[in-house]
Write a structure and sequence with these properties.
Blueprint lengths: L1 H14 L17 H11 L5 H10 L2 H5 L1 E3 L5 E3 L7 E2 H8 L10 H20 L5 E2 L20 E3 L4 H18 L7 H16 L52 E2 H20 L3 H21 L1 E4 L3 E4 L2 E2 L5 E2 L23 H10 L7 E3 L4 E3 L8 E2 L1 H9 L4 H12 L11 E3 L2 E6 L4 H17 L13
Antiparallel strand pairs: 1-2, 3-4, 4-5, 6-9, 7-8, 9-10, 11-12, 13-14, 14-15
Helix pairs in contact: 3-14, 5-6, 5-7, 5-14, 6-7, 6-8, 7-9, 8-10, 9-10, 12-13, 12-14
Length: 462
C-alpha cells in the first residue's frame, strides 16, 4: 500500500513538471513565508519569462515536494524520485534556506528536525549514506554484502555524507544560536564520526567496512572482497564511494578529503561550545593531519596545467585525473569554501576539469560541461554547469552558463541529473530536487552579484 501511495504521489508531482506554474500552495509539502518572499523579490527582477518561471518552480522544489514530518519533531527529506533520505542531498537541499531560520519559526523547526534526524541516522550507522523513514524497515538493498541494518536504505561509505551532516548542524547553530541540539546524542554521533574517519585512514588495518552488490556492475562494487584497492595509510581518509554513489577507483577521494578538513574544523568548534574539549581537540588534530596529507599526496604536476589536484589517489603513486559532476567535486571546491577560488592550484585544476583532458567533460549541440560515469559517456550534469557559474571569475562566463541551463531543461522547466550533450530532451531523473534548488540558489546569487544579467532575454525559440 505504501509503495502504491508513493507511486501516486510521484506521478502527481511529476505531472506538474510540464506545467508552467509552480505547484499550488495546497499541494506543497512545506510552506515558508520567508522563502516565498525571497522568490517574489527575485522573480520581479527577471525579465526573461522562461527563466522567471523556472526560478519560481525550481528554487522551492525541495520545500514544495520532498518534506515529510516524522516522529518526535524530526523531518525527513527525500531526494525526489527515490523514496529515501540521503545525508548529502537532504543537507544540500535545505542549505540555501538556513539563512532564514532566525526569522522564520516554521523553517527553523524544519531545519532543526532534519538535523536531529541526521544525528539519529548517524547513530544507526555512520557508514550509511541513505536512510528510510521507517527505522524498523529493511531496504530493497538488504542483500548487499555489507552489514545492513533496519532503517538503512543504502550503505555506501562516502566521506561527504558525514561532512554534509556536520555542516548542516554547524550552519543551523551558527544562524539560530540554538545549542540545545548539541545534546548527548550529538556528542555520541561526533564520537562515531571521528571513529569512522580514523578507521578509514587505514593506518593499522582495513577497518570494518566492506561493500559488494550482487549482480551489479563495477560502479556498485568495491574490489578486494569489498575493501577496495590497497592504500598507503598516509593520513588521508578512504572513501569507498563517490558523491555520485559510484565506487572509487582509488580510495583517497581528494575533494571529499578537503571537505572533511573543513567539516572537522567546524565540528571542533561545535564541540568546544559544549565543553567537549577532548573530542574537539581530536577533531582539530585530524583536520590538520588530513589537510597536510592532501597537499603532500593529492597534488599532481601536470605537464600542461602545472600543479593540479587529482580526483583520486592511493598514496602509492597512482593518480586518477578526472572530475565527476556530483558535489563535492574538484570544480566545486570554492563553492563549498574548501579552497580559495583565486589560488593557482585551483585555477590550474579548474582549467583541467573544464577541458577535454578531463575524460568526463563533454561538448555537444545542446551544451558543454562535466558529466559522470554514473550516467555514462556524452551526458552532462546541470549541476556541473551550476558549479561552473558559481566559481566563475567573469560575468561573461556566468552568462554563458545561465544560457545553457535555461535552454537544456528538456522542456520541463526543471533541472535534471543529466542530459545528452546533443539533445536536452534525453535526460535522467525528472524529479531531482537538489539540482532544482541549487539552480534557484544560483539565480539568487546572480541577483545579488550580477543583477544586470537578469535584465536579458535568454530563452531559445521552441
Amino acid at each position: 500500500m505504501k509503495k502504491l501511495l508513493y507511486l501516486i504521489l510521484s506521478l502527481s508531482l511529476i505531472s506538474c513538471f510540464t506545467n508552467s506554474l509552480r505547484i499550488s500552495s495546497e499541494k506543497r509539502t512545506f510552506v515558508s513565508d520567508s522563502v516565498d518572499a525571497e522568490i517574489k523579490l527575485v522573480a520581479e527582477s527577471i525579465a526573461d519569462q522562461k527563466l522567471r518561471i523556472m526560478f519560481e518552480k525550481c528554487y522551492p522544489n525541495t520545500l514544495d515536494t520532498t518534506v515529510e514530518a516524522a516522529d518526535n519533531g524530526r523531518f525527513y527529506i527525500i531526494t525526489g524520485d527515490i523514496p529515501a533520505m540521503w545525508l548529502r542531498d537532504s543537507s544540500a537541499q535545505v542549505f540555501p534556506f538556513i539563512k532564514f531560520v532566525g526569522e522564520d519559526a516554521r523553517l527553523k523547526t524544519l531545519v532543526r528536525g532534519l538535523a536531529l534526524n541526521h544525528i539519529d541516522s548517524i547513530l544507526i550507522d555512520p557508514y550509511a549514506n541513505a536512510f528510510l523513514k521507517d527505522r524498523s524497515a529493511f531496504s530493497k538493498y538488504k542483500s548487499d554484502t555489507t552489514q545492513m541494518l533496519p532503517g538503512v536504505f543504502e550503505r555506501k561509505w562516502e566521506i561527504d555524507s558525514l561532512c554534509y551532516s556536520i555542516d548542516l548542524l554547524y550552519e543551523y547553530v551558527s544562524v539560530s544560536s540554538d545549542e540545545s541540539i548539541l545534546d548527548e546524542n550529538f556528542v555520541k554521533a561526533c564520537s562515531l564520526i571521528l571513529d569512522t574517519f580514523v578507521e578509514q585512514q587505514r593506518k593499522i588495518d582495513k577497518g570494518p567496512y566492506f561493500f559488494m552488490r550482487k549482480g551489479s556492475d563495477a560502479l556498485s562494487n568495491q574490489v578486494n572482497s569489498g575493501f577496495g584497492r590497497e592504500v598507503a595509510g598516509n593520513g588521508l581518509i578512504c572513501s569507498a564511494f563517490r558523491p555520485s554513489d559510484d565506487a572509487t577507483d582509488y580510495l583517497y577521494l581528494i575533494p571529499s578529503n578537503l571537505f572533511a578538513v573543513k567539516s572537522l574544523k567546524n565540528l571542533s568548534r561545535l564541540l568546544d561550545s559544549v565543553s567537549q574539549k577532548g573530542l574537539s581537540a581530536r577533531s582539530a588534530e585530524l583536520a590538520a593531519e588530513v589537510e597536510a596529507a592532501v597537499y603532500e599526496y593529492g597534488v599532481y604536476n601536470h605537464p600542461k596545467y602545472g600543479e593540479i589536484l587529482a580526483y583520486e589517489v592511493d598514496g602509492l603513486g597512482n593518480y586518477n585525473l578526472m572530475d565527476d559532476a556530483n558535489v563535492p567535486s574538484l570544480l566545486a571546491l570554492p563553492f563549498l569554501e574548501l579552497i580559495e577560488k583565486d589560488s593557482d592550484i585551483y585555477q590550474n585544476t579548474r582549467r583541467f576539469v573544464l577541458s577535454s583532458d578531463n575524460p568526463w567533460y563533454f561538448e555537444g549541440k545542446a551544451g558543454k560541461g562535466i558529466g559522470s560515469p554514473h550516467t555514462g559517456r556524452d551526458t552532462i550534469w546541470p549541476m556541473s554547469i551550476i558549479m561552473q557559474a558559481f566559481t566563475a571569475s567573469s560575468e561573461e562566463e556566468v552568462e554563458e552558463c545561465l544560457r545553457m541551463l535555461i535552454n537544456t531543461d528538456g522542456g520541463t522547466g526543471f533541472m535534471h541529473e543529466s542530459f545528452h550533450k546533443n539533445n536536452d530532451k534525453s535526460f535522467s531523473r525528472a524529479w531531482f530536487s537538489w539540482a532544482n534548488t541549487l539552480f534557484g540558489s544560483l539565480i539568487v546569487n546572480i541577483y545579488e552579484n550580477y543583477p544586470a544579467l537578469l535584465d536579458k532575454a535568454y530563452s531559445s525559440a521552441d
